[in-house]
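Quick one, tokens below:
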């Protein structure tokens, strides 16, 4: 079970239940509310949900505190009786205003899902509805994010191998992936081509525009020879690698692992997979405000988190969701920024092409969007998040976490 309140919100306790409805297309009007367990034992599917802290906490989930931004969705004039009766049956007395906010949130999530469904040509939503694990969409206390129910189960096996303490045990599997990745070349050329690609691997960051990804990051710092590679596979100590030397604010060891991960990811076997909780911010703030220069429809923000969840459920995330150097690989993939916009046919199953950018590119085809999701000029996302102008901030941002 996810230690959600303790690990995420810093509040003592765990979430042992959520309230909400499972999304079944064609039956949206029934709104059969139920309690559900935020764990992988729950029936698979997409759930529009909330937890009791959304009802009673002082955390301003809906922007209602004095001077707060409010929400981007229309609030029903009266609390829905079905929701009110359901919560009363759970022993929960909730104010009418909070009930209306919750009802409006659930209806807005459904609205966003239906808009996404119009341009979901790669089957993102069907895969989540008909998959192996549950995905819960709940109100966010802060910004959008996705939390795997079992963190270690969300990532691919290559990521687990590269971070394994049992270094000697990964030499065989990683060598096998290398030869599989370059299978189109004669066997005698595969290692040379891999080392060349690794040596010339661009500096990629979440905080640079893709046009600023400079090539040959390792050229001035680390000679990736066959001897280096064989020594590394054997688990030998390599001074420049072990010492965590830095170049442009980046730890050489971490970027070596990150480059290796991104090169071999397309052929990595998956991990076990896990369900996820998506925190969705529906307040009128930040990227959700049309007047802001970095506006994107809130539904697009939800798309990004649904892509996170898709990879979690498949055990195919290349990196951990938060605060880890492998997060760079994960976010570039989920956003659809190179090198993951260049995965060729045969290297990945079709669903691995789905990304935030793949949905962005089709947003003009959405019919009858609500006011909050109108986007006159859809744009591709070329950076996860640009660093500020402050040079120190840029240097820190390049640390990749």
């Amino acid at each position: 079970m996810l230690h959600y309140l303790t690990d995420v919100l810093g509040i003592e306790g765990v979430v042992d239940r959520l309230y909400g409805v499972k999304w079944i297309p064609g039956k949206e009007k029934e709104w059969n509310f139920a309690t559900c367990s935020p764990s992988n034992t729950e029936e698979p599917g997409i759930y529009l949900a909330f937890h009791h802290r959304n009802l009673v906490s002082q955390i301003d989930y809906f922007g209602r505190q004095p001077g707060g931004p409010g929400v981007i969705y229309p609030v029903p004039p009266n609390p829905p009786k079905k929701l009110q009766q359901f919560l009363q049956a759970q022993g929960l007395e909730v104010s009418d205003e909070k009930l209306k906010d919750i009802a409006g949130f659930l209806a807005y999530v459904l609205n966003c899902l239906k808009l996404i469904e119009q341009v979901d040509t790669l089957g993102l939503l069907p895969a989540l509805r008909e998959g192996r694990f549950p995905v819960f969409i709940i109100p966010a206390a802060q910004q959008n994010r996705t939390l795997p129910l079992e963190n270690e189960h969300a990532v691919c096996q290559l990521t687990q191998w590269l971070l394994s303490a049992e270094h000697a045990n990964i030499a065989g599997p990683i060598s096998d992936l290398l030869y599989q990745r370059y299978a189109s070349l004669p066997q005698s050329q595969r290692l040379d081509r891999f080392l060349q690609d690794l040596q010339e691997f661009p500096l990629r960051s979440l905080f640079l525009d893709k046009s600023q990804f400079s090539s040959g990051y390792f050229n001035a710092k680390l000679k990736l020879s066959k001897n280096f590679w064989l020594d590394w596979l054997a688990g030998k100590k390599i001074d420049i690698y072990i010492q965590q030397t830095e170049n442009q604010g980046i730890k050489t060891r971490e970027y070596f692992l990150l480059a290796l991960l991104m090169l071999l990811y397309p052929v990595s076997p998956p991990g076990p997979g896990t369900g996820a909780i998506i925190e969705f911010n529906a307040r009128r703030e930040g990227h959700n405000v049309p007047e802001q220069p970095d506006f994107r429809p809130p539904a697009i923000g939800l798309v990004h988190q649904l892509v996170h969840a898709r990879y979690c459920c498949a055990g195919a995330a290349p990196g951990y969701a938060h605060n880890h150097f492998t997060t760079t690989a994960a976010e570039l993939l989920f956003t659809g920024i190179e090198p993951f916009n260049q995965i060729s046919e045969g290297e990945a199953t079709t669903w691995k092409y789905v990304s935030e950018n793949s949905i962005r590119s089709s947003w003009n085809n959405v019919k009858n969007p609500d006011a909050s999701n109108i986007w006159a000029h859809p744009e591709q996302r070329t950076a996860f998040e640009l660093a500020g102008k402050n040079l120190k901030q840029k240097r820190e941002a390049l640390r990749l976490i």
